[in-house]
Amino acid sequence: MRSIFVASLALVAAILGGAIGAIFAALLAGRLDLFRNRPGHTFFFIWGVRSDTSAGGILWEAVGALVRAICAFAAARLVLVLLSVRPTLTLAAALVVALLAWDLRHGAVHRRALIPVPQEIRSLHTLQIIARVLASVVVAPFFLRL
C-alpha cells in the first residue's frame, strides 16, 4: 500500500516538475509567451512556448525536452529520497508513459480543434513528442542509478 502511495506521489511530482522545468527553460531561452486578461475582466492566465522548425528551433526542442525530462525525473526522485524508497524499473517506465500520455493528450487538442490545424503545426508537435520521449528514455536510467 505504501509503495502505491509513494509511486502516485512521485508521478504527480514528475508531472509538476516537468511542467515547471519546461516553463523555466522557456523563460531563460526567451521563448515563453504569457497571456493575461485585461484589467476588469475575469481572470485567466495562459502560457505558451514559441517553437519553429529552423535549426535553432529544433535545437530548442531537443534542449527543452531534455530539461523537461531531467526536471520530471528529478522531482520524482526527490519524493522517493524523502520517503526513503528506492526507484524501480516499473516506476521509471510509468514515468515515461505518463509523460508520453501528457504529450498525446496535448496532441488530442489539435485533433478536436474547431478549425483545421495546419500540417506544419501537426508535424512540429510530432517532432516535439519524439524529442520528449527520447529525452525521457535517455534520462530514465540515471533516475534508476543515482
Instruction: Give the end-to-end Cα distance, rounded to a whole number of Å.
Output: 25 Å
Low-confidence segments: none
How many helix segments? Answer: 4
The chain-level structural class is mainly alpha
What is the element string, with H for helices and E for strands?
HEEHHH
Q: Please give the largest β-sheet.
A: 2 strands, antiparallel
Our count of domains comes out at: 1
Using the CA coordinates, give the radius of gyration. Answer: 17 Å
- Range of helix content: over 70%
Structural notes for this entry:
It is a single chain. With 146 residues, the protein is mainly alpha-helical. The protein has one domain. The protein has helices spanning 2-29, 55-82, 89-111, 119-145; strands spanning 32-36, 45-49. It has a two-stranded antiparallel sheet with strand order 1-2. Helix 1 packs antiparallel against helix 2 (55-82), helix 1 (2-29) crosses helix 3 and helix 3 runs antiparallel to helix 4. The protein is globular, with a radius of gyration of 17 Å.
Write the layout of secondary structure elements.
Elements: H1 2-29, E1 32-36, E2 45-49, H2 55-82, H3 89-111, H4 119-145
Antiparallel strand pairs: 1-2
Keyphrases for this structure?
two-stranded antiparallel sheet; single chain; 146 residues; mainly alpha
Outline:
The chain is mostly helical. Helices cover about 75% and strands about 5% of the residues.
